[in-house]
Amino acid sequence: MALTPTQRGVIRGMAIAATLTIVAIIGAAAWHPDELLPGDDTVARLTYALKWNLLPAACLLVAVLRLARHRFFTPEDIDGGGLSPGTQRAHILQSILQNTLEQTVLAAFAYSIWVVVMPHGWLTSIPAAALLFVFGRILFSRGYERGAHARAAGFGLTFYPSVLMLAVAAVYLTQHMVFG
Question: pTM of the full predicted structure?
Answer without folding.
Answer: 0.94
